């Protein structure tokens, strides 16, 4: 059956309008799709930004550094190779006519531990603002074509290339250093942060990413260690870094063996006598009482004795001081328990507590638990702490000392007078003992200024009801002079170096209440 013309026309217009509707639908679909695509692109670029930007400063981050420095150094190495193929100085063109070889300096700028204090004590917004500010300040020192990255919270990396000579580069380092350490001022407070900068140079100190960054990092650690604003990498630094790593692995090995079998023990504890001397009567004085400072000794099977001066600072730096410290504490407590019921039970043992140990909540918790378990140890254990341990967070330190003191622990302030002793907090701290640093002792017999200091400290200790121990007595003339100033307690090679358990026990038996050899007149 055929359609009428009217029907055909109707059908045509119907299909035209449905086509139009379809096209419209397709268009809107298309628009939606391209909107979605735009959004996806935006999201991707945001993600990329997040991936390559440090969110606290808005600066390129370590991922970005990795990518850029690799490319930059490849380019520089290639330039050098091309350069070396060009005619040399003797050639008719002449070397000076060639473009200069590219110079690159990689700087690692690390904020000092005052930044950690800002993080611990002030609001997050302030520490983030400080990081942002530092980024802006370094950014102002960076010239076109040079780069700045914010790699870790407390670390920035700068790549400099615009410098004509070493002295020019030093000038630029000085500008960057000054910019970082300039105080931050907010709500009337001045916040002083320090920093240390390690510098590696291309091509002398490395020709690839990891060598350049590693060299700068070693130089930065050395700058921290030697308290220098900045240091350039030197080959000898690498040796000391390797040595440190070796020493660190030896410590770890020794700790592992320590816990496995007693015969394998490389560490041991020694006891340096702290003597209390009675007044001089008829030209004779006697040692009334002996306590001891516990000092660690390390005998390595191949290397022999390794001095604590050599490994304790490294252990402190790496955190290994915590397991070492726990072991020392365990040994000392074990010894105190063994002495119970014997004449040795009147000996107080003093243990050195490093700043990192003092800050460690776990160690403090262990001590408290141990004192709960063994109340008989109260007043037989003393902890020697230095001012550095207290200064990080004085308020918290005071609270902590007071709490532990209530639990029955005693405290000695070690190396007193060596740092910036702030006398006002001496009254706040629940101290039992002051240990006068040996710096005041070495010339005390001939130096009136040292004698005056000792007299003042004796007076101070008396007024504050603190026991005073003079450290580092090496000669009888030092001892005589100190006795004249009113000192009664001493520690030093004149009496004895640190002794093994057997020797220490004999020392007590042989010296207590006997007239002293070389007694001062
Ligand atoms: O022991 P002298 O023996 O050489 O010790 C050198 C340094 O190592 C000293 O400053 C001393 O305080 C530190 N030291 C020694 N033994 C210990 C210890 O058992 N713990 C801690 N934290 N430091 C120690
Ligand atoms: O206060 P400190 O914990 O740093 O003291 C322990 C350190 O002092 C150990 O290294 C110990 O060997 C050392 N020492 C002990 N007596 C003397 C001494 O009479 N003279 C010197 N120079 N060092 C000593
Ligand atoms: Mn000490």
Structural summary, described in words:
This protein is of the alpha/beta class. Helix content is 50%, strand content 18%. It has 17 helices and 16 strands. The longest helix has 48 residues, at 5-52. The chain binds guanosine-5'-monophosphate (2 copies) and manganese (II) ion. Manganese (II) ion binds at residues 293, 352, 384, 414.
Give a quick summary of the entry.
The chain is α/β, with parallel strands linked by helices.
What's the topology here?
Layout lengths: L4 H48 L9 H24 L18 E8 L2 H8 L2 H18 L5 E6 L2 E6 L5 H16 L2 E3 L2 E3 L3 E8 L6 H17 L4 E3 L2 H26 L6 E11 L9 E14 L3 E3 L1 H11 L2 H19 L9 E4 L2 H5 L1 H13 L7 E5 L1 H5 L2 H13 L3 E7 L6 H4 L6 E4 L11 H16 L3 E4 L5 H9 L4 E3 L9 H11 L10
Parallel strand pairs: 6-7, 9-11, 11-12, 12-13, 13-14, 14-15, 15-16
Antiparallel strand pairs: 1-3, 1-6, 2-3, 4-5, 8-9, 8-16, 9-10
Helix pairs in contact: 4-5, 7-8
The structure holds guanosine-5'-monophosphate (G) (2 copies) and manganese (II) ion.
One guanosine-5'-monophosphate binds next to strand 13.
The unreliable regions are: 88-99
SSE class: alpha/beta
Beta-strand content estimate: 15-25%
Share of helix among residues? Answer: 40-55%
* Molecules bound to protein: guanosine-5'-monophosphate, manganese (II) ion
Distance between the termini: 145 Å
């Amino acid at each position: 059956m055929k359609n009428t013309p009217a029907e055909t026309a109707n059908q045509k217009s119907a299909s035209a309008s449905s086509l139009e509707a379809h096209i419209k639908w397709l268009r809107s679909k298309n628009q939606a799709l391209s909107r979605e695509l735009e959004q996806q692109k935006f999201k991707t670029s945001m993600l990329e930004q997040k991936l390559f930007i440090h969110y606290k400063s808005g600066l390129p981050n370590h991922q970005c550094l990795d990518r850029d420095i690799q490319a930059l150094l490849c380019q520089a190495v290639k330039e050098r190779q091309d350069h070396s193929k060009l005619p040399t100085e003797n050639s008719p063109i002449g070397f000076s006519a060639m473009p200069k070889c590219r110079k690159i300096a990689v700087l690692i700028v690390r904020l000092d531990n005052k930044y950690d204090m800002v993080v611990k004590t002030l609001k997050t917004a302030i520490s983030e603002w400080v990081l942002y500010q530092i980024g802006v300040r370094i950014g102002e020192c960076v010239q076109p074509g040079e780069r700045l990255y914010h790699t870790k919270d407390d670390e920035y990396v700068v790549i400099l290339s615009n410098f004509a000579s070493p002295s020019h580069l030093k000038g630029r380092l000085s500008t960057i250093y000054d910019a970082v350490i300039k105080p931050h001022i907010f709500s009337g407070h001045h916040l002083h942060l320090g920093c240390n900068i390690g510098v590696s140079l291309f091509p002398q100190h490395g020709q690839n990413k990891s060598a350049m960054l590693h060299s700068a990092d070693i130089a930065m650690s050395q700058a921290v260690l030697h308290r220098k604003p900045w240091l350039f990498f030197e080959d000898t630094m690498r040796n000391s870094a390797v040595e440190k790593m070796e020493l660190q692995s030896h410590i770890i090995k020794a700790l592992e063996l320590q816990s496995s079998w007693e015969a394998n023990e490389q560490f041991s504890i020694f006891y340096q006598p702290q003597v209390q001397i009675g007044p001089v009567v008829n030209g004779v004085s006697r040692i009334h009482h002996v306590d001891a400072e516990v000092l660690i000794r390390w005998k390595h099977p191949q290397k022999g004795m390794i001095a604590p001066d050599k490994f304790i600072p490294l252990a402190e730096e790496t955190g290994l001081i915590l397991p070492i410290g726990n072991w020392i504490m365990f040994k000392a407590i074990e010894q105190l328990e063994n002495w119970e019921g014997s004449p040795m039970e009147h000996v107080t043992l003093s243990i050195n507590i490093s700043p990192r140990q003092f800050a460690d909540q776990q160690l403090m918790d262990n001590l408290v638990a141990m004192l709960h378990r063994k109340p008989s140890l109260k007043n037989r254990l003393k902890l020697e702490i230095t001012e550095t341990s207290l200064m990080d967070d004085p308020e918290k330190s005071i609270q902590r000392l007071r709490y532990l003191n209530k639990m029955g622990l005693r405290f000695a302030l070690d190396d007193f007078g060596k740092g910036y002793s702030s006398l006002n907090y001496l009254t706040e701290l629940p101290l039992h003992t002051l240990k006068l640093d040996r710096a005041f002792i070495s010339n005390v017999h001939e130096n009136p200024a040292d004698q005056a200091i000792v007299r003042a400290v004796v007076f101070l200790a008396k007024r504050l009801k603190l026991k005073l121990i003079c450290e580092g007595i090496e000669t009888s003339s030092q001892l005589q002079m100190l006795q004249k100033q009113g000192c009664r307690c001493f520690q030093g090679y004149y009496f004895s170096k640190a002794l093994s358990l057997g020797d220490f026990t004999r020392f007590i038996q042989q010296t207590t209440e006997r007239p002293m050899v070389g007694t001062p007149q």
